[in-house]
Write a structure and sequence with these properties.
21% of the residues lie in helices and 26% in strands. By secondary structure, the chain is α/β, with parallel strands linked by helices. It binds NADP nicotinamide-adenine-dinucleotide phosphate.
Length: 310
Amino acid sequence: MLAWTTSPGSPGGLLLREVDEPVPLPDELVVRVEAVAPNPGDLAALTGAPPGAIPGWDGSGVVLQAAADGQGLSVGERVVFLGLAARGWAQRRAVPRAMTAAAPADASWEQLATLPVPATSALRAVRRFGSLLGRRLLIVGATSAVGRFAVQLAARSGAVVVAVARDQSQHAELHRLGAHETHTDLNSVSPGVYGAIDMIGGRHLVQTYALLDRGGTVIALGHAAGADEHFPFGAFVADPATYDRAITSFFLGSEPELAKEMTYLAADRELQFGELDVKAWTELAAWIAAGAPRPSGRTVFTVDHEEPVS
Ligand SMILES: NC(=O)c1ccc[n+]([C@@H]2O[C@H](COP(=O)([O-])OP(=O)(O)OC[C@H]3O[C@@H](n4cnc5c(N)ncnc54)[C@H](OP(=O)(O)O)[C@@H]3O)[C@@H](O)[C@H]2O)c1
């Protein structure tokens, strides 16, 4: 079969070449991969990956071989999957059944491939706050893949959603997804924030923390700005209005079983996937070599197969 493998010196650091078929562990399915959607995490993991490794976490496809332990999805079922151990940018892959979910027939392969890491991260982050009914939740970087899902899930949880996204042309869309307030930067956000999910980091994390009510928490989920955080003296000095505020880090893989969350999200007909930039997978390395441009929405690659679709 064909797979993209890490290859220092090749364009984008990747080479499409023949590799061995996947050999599944007893709790793994073998999937015929139809679409893959690179995450910032996938791209970051390319640096430092050993030569010859197959990168790639998120995708969608059809089960070719059920897990040998007899549990999970059956042959022929549509599946959406996440494999943090990578191996996804291939025509076929083995994936732990704990990282798979049955996919509905009416969602496209491309839409489904964009779901795993962003939507499950958003769900787990929103859940950490407990009841959000009537509480102000700030989402920083709301036009990111995680941010869009977080806006939708927080709004349906009853939160008063305050969305921050630097691209004002996306604010009407964020309102449509459920945001109650939108801002291009944090300077115009009023204090009194119960909780926050920050996808950007750097000065955004510093400013977000300062907007919290006492007892409030920022989940530092993402670090898209790639910038240091400098807190001014006094940021952690508590007074009656500001005590017990917290910043917490986040790792999607902290609980390895993702099947239940992905099944819920994949079956959700209300969830909006957003604009997709669909390309053939032969363009993957060139896209990475060009800096993984993100013109609008998420970039998804459809996988070619030598055999006809069954
Ligand atoms: N800890 C975990 O387990 C976990 C899980 C999932 C994701 N993440 C992290 O979460 C972050 C978001 O992931 P994603 O897939 O949602 O990313 P994404 O779809 O690629 O979106 C990145 C976002 O960052 C914004 N951005 C980039 N640089 C910025 C800057 N300097 N100032 C302001 N905004 C900036 C972009 O704004 P524009 O749209 O205006 O360009 C875009 O909205 C990434 O850092 C990712 O690695 C972490």
